[in-house]
């Protein structure tokens, strides 16, 4: 919301992507994002959980759901990016027991 509005927007946060969504974005973080990011895309919680499960099963590492947003989005765009060299940055492993349970019960992307 804040990225599109180009200013801090307060919003309720109900997501597994705690690292990506805050009630109110930090002033400096929003300023840097607006200065250096051209566009954003959204993925839903189920896609994040599925991406996290895929990374756990195929990559043998556990990442928090929000950190899996690049994989979730790349999977949605797989036909568009097929044949291209793609780098995905996955950084973050803040997972409590309920998040790990949600990842475990999610379907894998592939």
How does this model look, in words?
This protein has helices spanning 2-5, 27-36, 45-59, 69-76, 78-81, 97-105. The protein contains six helices and no strands. By secondary structure, it is an all-alpha fold.
List keywords for this structure.
single chain; 110 residues; mainly alpha; 6 helices
Concise synopsis of the structure shown:
The chain has 110 residues and is mainly alpha-helical. The chain has helices at 2-5, 27-36, 45-59, 69-76, 78-81, 97-105. The chain is built from 6 helices and no strands.
Structural class: mainly alpha
Overall 3D form: globular
Low-confidence stretches: none
* Straight-line distance between termini: 30 Å
Give the helix level as a range of percent.
40-55%
Number of helices: 6
How many beta-strand elements?
0
Report the β-strand fraction as a percent range. under 5%
How is the main sheet built? none
| Overall average residue pLDDT | 95
Provide the succession of SSEs. HHHHHH
Write down the Rg. Answer: 15 Å
Q: Could you give the topology of this structure?
A:
Layout: H1 2-5, H2 27-36, H3 45-59, H4 69-76, H5 78-81, H6 97-105
